[in-house]
Amino acid sequence: MSDTKIYIYNYEKLYDILNELSSELKLNFIHIEKGKINKINNENCCIISKEKIKNYNNQILLKNSSIRINKLYELINVQLISRNFSAQSKLKVGDYLLDVNSRLVFDNNNNKLKLTEKEIKIIVFLKNQKRNSTIKELQLNVWGYNNNLETHTVETHIHRLKKKFKSNFNDSYFITSTKSGYKLN
């Protein structure tokens, strides 16, 4: 489960649905009623509501009562990633410094490499894993795809990312592939 709390503000039916899916989505949902919103810490949360709440930055407004779960999951991920980009612009990843906002990676000699947003998401996800990550885990957490989807998108992106590190930094081992998945070195 994610450490970030996703508050469902005054929207009990949505909370019931998302709470049932919380282990699958790997998110922590909390229902909060009107009048108790001022008890929420604005920095480590995301709020889903039907109305704009003053003094809270991380909000997803659902003005329309119907939305597909995968679209809502995508909106949540975008909100959390945006918040994380602002909070953690520069990350130490192995021997490299990753500037998430500028999408640049620097080596110890200050050589730089421009990355795509998806490549950044892959690196940040792999960095936060304690073990190898499977293709299905990457599909779900980086792309938001269903676990049963057949695609070579992950393999293609990982291959291109490895190729960039090899040609720019002469590093063939930044990401390693094993039978059990991918990991950063």
Report on this structure.
By secondary structure, this protein is of the alpha/beta class. The chain has helices at 12-25, 69-87, 117-127, 135-143, 153-169; strands at residues 5-9, 28-32, 45-49, 59-61, 90-93, 96-99, 104-106, 112-114, 175-178, 181-184. It contains five helices and ten strands. It has a four-stranded parallel sheet, covered by helices on one side. A four-stranded antiparallel sheet has the order 5-6-7-8, with helices on one face. A two-stranded antiparallel sheet has the order 9-10. The longest helix is centred in the middle third of the chain and has 19 residues, at 69-87. The protein is globular and about 55 Å long. It starts with a strand and ends with a strand.
What does the overall shape look like?
globular
The oligomeric status of these chains comes to single chain
Beta content = 15-25%
What's the overall average pLDDT, rounded? 85
Low-confidence stretches: none
Could you describe the largest sheet, including whether it forms a barrel?
Answer: 4 strands, parallel
Radius of gyration over all CA atoms, rounded: 18 Å
Strand element count:
10
Distance between the termini: 24 Å
SSE sequence, one letter per element: EHEEEHEEEEHHHEE
- Count of alpha/pi helices: 5
Work out the helicity level. Answer: 25-40%
Name the structural class. alpha/beta
What strand line-up does the widest sheet have?
Answer: 2-1-3-4
Summarize it.
The protein has 185 residues and is an alpha/beta fold.
Keyphrases for this structure?
about 180 residues, alpha/beta, 5 helices, four-stranded parallel beta sheet, four-stranded antiparallel beta sheet, globular
